[in-house]
């Protein structure tokens, strides 16, 4: 039955054309209600619309022994972010799932209180009522005055997007571990300092008491002790005991860093750095403030005071703040790390995943990626990271990538993938093991762990949380990332909880219940999943099969872009299979090597359980690593490994996101309303326009603007193609104009087409007003040149005409271009003036993808042995040249001038590869003696 | 080689021609690299399409702070550069890497020469001698960069150096001529010759040397120690006074003759044994008025348009850089067989003959040009468009373009110099260049730069070779079976 609104809607369009303003109003009862959150600027797709906070934030809470769970601080520290979200309530929730089996006191069989160096626990929980999901990182700090010497804290990453938390679990865990480690390191120092003070006090008290006792003894010669004397003696005895206890505690806390921090080294560099700083502080300011390892034993400035032997646990005293607990230095660092985390995970999950995949793939192209990628950003971050946290044990990292590489927005925790992560970073593991001697034994007995114990443990955990009857869903828990043995044994934890099963359970639960705990999954960080378990869980296997499809796609993609393998494999098979386009010449061989691992689980060296069938994408990952070594584009496999150890996102999506926010507010002048709208629509989770972020230079905004301006250039100038060809083929393009702003803008826009010579500098000079020199053409490939109308400018123009054979000249004032002819097919694809791409950032990505493809061609061309070196002595140079030409034409599908582009890129690749160290050699100016033509609008 | 006098001071380019780039962009379809073309100068130009020009890659080498005047080849892959800043730099010609910088002179360097190691001597290190305006001569070890020895007892600036390897001695020419041995002992010297000093020195047979002093050529004979006396001596044998103006260039051509060129364009070929004039060519400055000459003189203001700056030679021909032009003189035919009267915009400073009948010239106009000596096809000797090939023959071609072809053939030289490429890079006078068979061309200039011109294709191949070598070194090269 056709209802009235349908009819109206159907006929409306015609009427609209004729009488646009005479539109009959829709009866109120038929009108579709507007999206309820539209007024808040939210879009219907935003998951955040239900949540009470505007975007993700980090919450630090404490379970105070005085007042119970309480929120301490949020990052960002802005009430707008969490809005009406009840932090107190949520603190209660997240603190109530604290597992903390940490136990300080007098364990049976021990005379003194023992400090338990408990590992952090990591839990994912959700509160469907609040629409909040959180990664919760529990940690314990030591406080001499606290009950049991411990103060439980937790850091929570709160997001409205459950999938985000689940999929970024490894990354979150790794990052939060860093922050936690930093806090704990500071705390240990502060605690040790506190203990020392206490010891001094006790010592002093003892002396005083002793003296008093002696005096009393002397005064009292009656042969019996007064009650007072007995009391004194008792007190003295308890002081003595207390001293011993505290000395023991001090010994424990001091012994910790040496065995632990080296092994985990989560922030060892930071620690060292901080220590340096602390040293400086110590020398200049109050040493009490600066707890330094070296200063543990000497604190001359502290004056001991008389204290009671029995510490009073009273509730009226003020507990130390977090900052006091952890030493200001470390506290600030932690805050910095947390805000780094906040930046890092800002934005939509899709975005995070894509950028992570992007980075991961880019890293694999380490031969060619210097050409067009934003090396500065990447490299700086890499260097920075290497400096700040060098031997990062990242068992959780590579699996994260495998998770990322499956871009389905669904919850799955592929336990098996963690397994292969262990395999893929053997070096790291060894290092870690070596340092953690105290766990070595366990590690060596990987295969003989006792699942039962852990099962019990798990049961306890789960029972505890399930029975609490709150609306908390424990989505996942995780024990320490740094303790291999534990996590290893935790494989068994997951046995009863297949992710798949749990997930469905969770879903069903949530639909029914408003107030119930749903344990979605426990998530051991680098758990090894036993084979037999998989076999017994068809659901898990199904899930993996479904991944296989995805990863197959990924493999295909990888095969067509991954240079090392191609380069390696091409030699034999080129002749036969080269008729396919692009890099297909090697695919025959390549795909074999790729698919074998898919079908048959490859035995791996560090596999304690023998054979493990991990999800295929893991093998892909590994396979690639293997290939890199095999093909040997990388001189040092270990370096490769270490670089793989860094999570992809460290290359910083946050930065992108941050600037993305900015770009939203400062939309480019040229973006039309459509793009404006779409940009708003496309960002779902991250809605708040945030102003400048400290960590985010405008790279993303730059890209966007550059893309936009490039797009504009392409639309505006019919001769954009030869201009871009000049840039791609290494012929310096001089943009000549009077107005600096316009020239700069165009130079920035066109710089996205300029291949880099090395990782360190982009050969672009935005603005020059002096006459150009031959060295400028050697150094710069894109120059913005000021047109001076005065006689002084004549020299500039003269040199320009003198060196015209090295340059293409784009005259912005007269709208002409003088450059060689271009008849290829590549640039039209790159810069189609009829393109439907409207947004600058989209166009930028388009350019990047075309250029990446180009890079792979250049790579192939460069590393084909028989194209450059004779197969035998009798081959002449002419034969080689013709072979090269036919390769470019037939195999790479290049026509005319496109060949020159690839040849130029190949030269850059060669130079870059041969140079030791890369990027240090002299750039040569290559040119062709080709006639130039003048293009006009 | 000996240091020949070069015009002092940097000669920055005259900025000629239309300087309106913007409008030029709008008008012409193809630009020419020479600013003079718009003046309708007879300068032969070549477009941007230079298929025969192999130099498609360049590398700019920066180390000097003043005019670079001298380049000497040390071995197959090294060369040294020296100039007015007093430093000598040793370069790798393949990579452009700066190997050594030799600091020692306080003033500009006036002459530089290599002193090859003796065959018998243990010390195999290559030495270079440099003379400077600070009146010193320094011997350098150019493998280590060490300053071996320094002589500073000169009365005047040494302007030229020559090594007589046969006798293992070297001579320095300033206001007088001194003879030194390898250990830098002064063996003997002449009396004061002239205030202008010796401008060029060459060795000729019978222990003789020829020195160009002003307009004169002086022949000295070295008396080597014999059984009777252990003394060295140098005796003046003869003075040749055939030149009418200062002698600028003096070179050995072959075993039979040497050649001199003077400021007014006289070229004399001498018998090397009896020092008689074999041939003389003086009509480079043919006064016949050319159509464009007037304009050129106004433009270029070059009175020394016909001074002979440099010679080079091969078995058959002597090539002379005369003013702005290039001339090829055939020794057998005793006549000029080919010429380019205006090969460059201004004086040609250095020329060299390549094995493949190619000639390279560099000039004060900042360009380097590559020429090819071609047999002129008689049948093709038809009137060619003026302004393009109008400069062969001895003038009057323009005026008598209507003359019968036959007559033109009689007058016209049998060969021609064809421009096959030019190298534009320096922004000022190109003082000298060096040709490496394997590495290309090195040019030095008054703009303080040295440019390494390379064959791009060959370099590309070399880089590939290197790349695969590195792959192999890393054990990453797996040849398909």
TrEMBL record, chain A:
The ranges of region (Disordered) come to: 382-404, 565-650, 666-707
Where is this protein localized, as stated in its record?
Cytoplasm
Q: Which residues form the UDENN FLCN/SMCR8-type domain?
A: 48-910
Q: Does the keyword Cytoplasm apply?
A: yes
Q: Its Gene Ontology biological processes?
A: autophagy
Location, primary (coarse class) = cytoplasm
Alphabetized, the UniProt keywords read:
Autophagy, Cytoplasm, Guanine-nucleotide releasing factor
Bias-annotated ranges (Polar residues): 574-584, 635-644, 686-698
Molecular function via GO: GTPase activator activity; guanyl-nucleotide exchange factor activity
Spell out the GO cellular component terms annotated for this protein, sorted alphabetically and separated by semicolons.
Answer: cytoplasm; guanyl-nucleotide exchange factor complex
**Where does this protein have compositionally biased stretches of type Low complexity?**
673-685
| Entry's family note | Belongs to the SMCR8 family.
Query: What protein name applies here?
Result: Guanine nucleotide exchange protein SMCR8
Automatic annotation (TrEMBL), chain B:
Checking SMART domains in the record gives: WD40 (SM00320)
> Repeats (WD): which ranges?
102-150, 341-381
InterPro entries for this protein: WD40/YVTN_repeat-like_dom_sf (IPR015943), WD40_PAC1 (IPR020472), WD40_repeat_CS (IPR019775), WD40_repeat_dom_sf (IPR036322), WD40_rpt (IPR001680), WDR41 (IPR040102)
User: Cross-referenced PROSITE patterns, in alphabetical order?
Assistant: WD_REPEATS_1, WD_REPEATS_2, WD_REPEATS_REGION
Alphabetically sorted, this entry's keywords are: Repeat, WD repeat
Protein name according to UniProt: WD repeat-containing protein 41 isoform X1
Organism of origin is Acinonyx jubatus (Cheetah)
